[in-house]
Amino acid sequence: MYHKKTSGFTLIELLVVISIIALLIGMLLPSIEKARDSGEQIACQTNLRQMGIAMESYIGEWNDWIPYYEIWYGDHHRSKLQVNADGSWFWKKNWEGLHALANSYLDPSGDAESMMLNTHQGLTCASWRGQDELTGDSDYAKIVRTSTRHANGQHLVPYGSNNEFLGTQWRASADAKEWFYRKKSYVKYPSNIITDGDNAYSYPATNTPYHYWGVINRTAPIENSRKDQEANVDMLPEYRQELRYPTGDRHFQGGNVVCMDGHVDWQTQERWHAAESDHRWREWNADLKWRIPR
What we know:
By secondary structure, this protein is of the alpha+beta class. It has helices at residues 11-61, 69-73, 101-106, 139-145, 148-153, 163-166, 239-242, 269-272, and strands at residues 81-83, 89-91, 159-161, 167-168, 180-181, 194-198, 254-259, 264-268, 289-290. Residues 222-229 have low confidence and may be disordered.
């Protein structure tokens, strides 16, 4: 009788095969991770491009005025704001009924209550670390996920506005005489100016545990967020401590932004806040209008 010899892996051969497979996985994982990060960066840039188109639509409809921070990101959709000559003001519309004006320009149907900006259902960044706060079943998470007003009000948003240059309203000052506005035609080089972008962890405020503010800039140190500084003040190297509203660093150690001409740009967070990047945040010869809205 002939004995049929069975063949199979020896233990050493099996270990060699496993080692080769592990080596291949180790070589492929960085590429897969990089591809995923690239996809998230592209999705984020698409969001910002949509915001740039929406802003341009607003500028075209509102006689060249750039949307100032509160009405764009904040709580009021064409609301009745009464401003008095002495600088005092109050809402004529119920506070709970206010919504971000940006929603009406981002939503295809023009719905101001669509929660399109900075919410889980609308435009958000998949790489945004603050997104962890929005997962779960807590009442807070449910509210923020479904309301532009609550998301921005709780400083838990993936995108921020360059309000130090574009214009801002009641959140900048309780005195309406200090609110300021700007037209696009006042800006000589709109392709230089950042309008919106990824935001990052900011210096902790005293009244909230959340630090992903809806504003970004490189000109506001901790001790004074309203006064202009001299040009080319270098906020580095400790920009995380020196800047109150830095850009994000979640896309390859850098942040995406959209500029006033609608194009999307990327740079490392460190480069965004370097002195030679100051022209991306403000333009010193651009006209500025201080006025009390009626």
